[in-house]
Amino acid sequence: MIAFRNFFNRSRIVFNSHIRGYTQKIPRCSNSFPCNTAEENIESCFLSNGMQLICETRDSLTTTVGFMVPAGSMVESCEDRGGSLFMEHLLFKRTMNRSQEDIEKELINIGGKLFAFALRDTFLFYGIVWRKNTREMIEILADIILNGLICEEDVAGVKPQIFREVDKTESNPEKVIMEYFPMIAYQDTKLAQGVHPETDKIRGMCSSELNCFKEKHFKICCMTMISIGPISLNELQNLICQYFPDVGTDYVSIAGASKAESMPQKCYRYTGILKQIFLIKLVNHFIIAGADLRIRDDDHELGYVGIGVEGPSFTDLYDRFTMEIAKRIIGSWDKSFAGANHNAPYIAHLAFNTDICESYKSFILDWEDASIWGCYFVCTKMKLEYMSNLIQTEWRKLSIDVIEKVVRRATNQCKFSELMKFNDPVARFHDLVNYIHRHGRYVPMEERLRIYNSISADTVREIARDYLYDQCPTVIALGRIENCPDYNVVRRRMYSLFF
């Protein structure tokens, strides 16, 4: 017994010494967030072939490197409709030097992954790889861009995949409503073209059309290459010189002009426009060109409704950030959320106590020079009218009596969301794409936080009034929606709530 106690005491001494030795190696946390340190390592340059390089050098075990191409569904013509969607599935199939099996084998050997996304206003493809194999990933991407092949066999092979993707999207009511929003709100504009084309276009797509689409839009001079990882801009430039033809450099500041600034600005006509006509009798008559789409399907147990208005784009950052705060004030909730009675947003608090809805979510849909700000909710059929009225009442509070405490809470959430982008290289990649493509230049984190700190309750009330008061909303509803209020009722609440 004594021997066991002595052994235990000796073991405890050794164990404690290991703990003390380990804790001494942990650095103390700093009180300030090192966002400036990260952003001091962002560099940019233009190459002689027209490509723009943007490089964020950071201490990381992985490298995220990819390309942004202005080749979304908005640029598709009637002949090549659906080209961006097919490119998403066919871009990594084969090249002149590699088959699909070769590409997959090399990715396995270097521990890398490739991703491609077709959006309305842009096309993104990038790879994530261990930092020691960055050269191999860039070489694979260069081979795909310069020597990629699209054959009829591959086109026929991806058509069933695309049909399954379309079926999966159509089975999700939230995705259907979000897909319909730009189609209805921006009718007869390029923004109304969704990524998923008509079924006949998918079935009739051929390799010759896709090759023409690729040659027209996937040009090196239009691409922007973004790298996030331990590689520096000089190292990235040397790798590009090896794999891309006609490369030279002309350095510019990351905060300076970019290709997006030199392109002509696009204007997208929002359908819900209030028009005023003066008649001979000197009486003002208003014609409301509202946007309303309803698909009633009693096979659904619930009603799915989205109400949105034209929101600020990235071209006006102050309004954009203010409406982001407004979105956080409205908040989101579903039955899986914790918090119970202590949810900060009023709608979430009421939803928990009264079972008024199954879920709701405030949102901003962003595209190039356009956006939609609104709220999506799911209810049983007899509660749709009450939920719609409740949401528009909360919009009224944004414009009239929002208080400083609520604005500060939402502002802190927005700043935390911005800072969290530093921790995820993929989120950081999309962050750079959003600002460079949609705003025209990269906005440093310090500037973003300064804008958020300058926004007060008075600012939220003023800007929310500009975007909400007497504006024509877009209403999309599907499912059990017989109790959903008429569009004229929803439209009237956009101004009657203020009186």
Whole-number mean pLDDT: 83
Strand residues, percent: 15-25%
Q: Main sheet? A: 7 strands, mixed
The total beta strand count reads: 17
Q: CATH homologous superfamily of the largest domain, by name?
A: Metalloenzyme, LuxS/M16 peptidase-like
Strand order of the largest sheet: 5-6-3-8-2-1-9
Q: How many distinct domains?
A: 2
Return the CATH topology of the largest domain: Cytochrome Bc1 Complex, Chain A, domain 1
**Integer-rounded radius of gyration:** 27 Å
CATH architectural category of the largest domain: 2-Layer Sandwich
Structural class: alpha+beta
Shape descriptor: globular
Uncertain residue segments: 1-37, 249-265, 273-289
Give the CATH class of the largest domain: Alpha Beta
Distance between the termini: 85 Å
Number of helices: 19
Kindly state the percentage of residues in helix.
40-55%
Please give a structural write-up:
The chain contains 19 helices and 17 strands. With 499 residues, it is an alpha+beta fold. The protein folds into two domains: 217 residues, Metalloenzyme, LuxS/M16 peptidase-like (Cytochrome Bc1 Complex, Chain A, domain 1, 2-Layer Sandwich), CATH 3.30.830; 206 residues, 2-Layer Sandwich (Cytochrome Bc1 Complex, Chain A, domain 1). The strands form four sheets. A seven-stranded mixed β-sheet has the order 5-6-3-8-2-1-9, sandwiched between helices. A hairpin with a 4-residue loop joins strand 1 and strand 2. It is globular and about 65 Å long. The termini are far apart.
